[in-house]
Design brief:
With about 240 residues, this protein is mostly helical. The chain contains 9 helices and no strands.
Length: about 240
Amino acid sequence: MIGFLYFSAGDRWRVLPEFAATTENKMLLDFGIVAINVISLIVAVFIGTGLVKKEIDKRTILVLIAKPVSRSEIIAGKFLGLSAVLAVLITTMTAIYLVFLQIENIPHPTLSIVIAGVFLFLQISLINAVAITLGVFTNALLAVTLTFAVYLLGNISQDVVKFGRLSQNPTMERITQGLYLILPDLSRLDLKNDAVYGMQALPNATILITNAGYGVLYCIMLLAIASFVFSKREF
């Protein structure tokens, strides 16, 4: 009996470090991807909302309008410029993250993390488009607040629809369905949780391509709205 207890206790203490190490590795994998997401989101929101708004407030927009470029080209240029910065930022942080994992000998699915990084760029680019669109016709503080709200609600839009169905209230269902149709479904572009489990956890290629196309089309739609509103403004 004593021998059994000794073995059980010894086995327990032998297993715990292995379990703790596995948990620590998982936490580091999650933390790294989340950190990249948060930093790039902050850059997209605070810079994106002010790209056009600051030009309007400082009246420097008059200089741009006087040049042989259309207002839609100005919006597209602002979007593409910040998207390029975000691409460099996310690529650099992802590379540093992978190097860190390699140095620390933490097992990690490199390809799935890279794919998650690409979709993170699409997601943040979509938020960039939201920020620019809101910045065209609202003040800076409201644009920042609404952009963060769109990001938060966009990530739970599918859950909101499920909540509407569970409520069994026709009015609530219509409201949640309306929100889902208006807000971007950012969960389609969120592969953070899937990436740490490797390629087998990611959606298949067809779904990935469809979701990427969804993100691109939503960006185009938002930029079209921003261009239309911007073209109607008088300076």
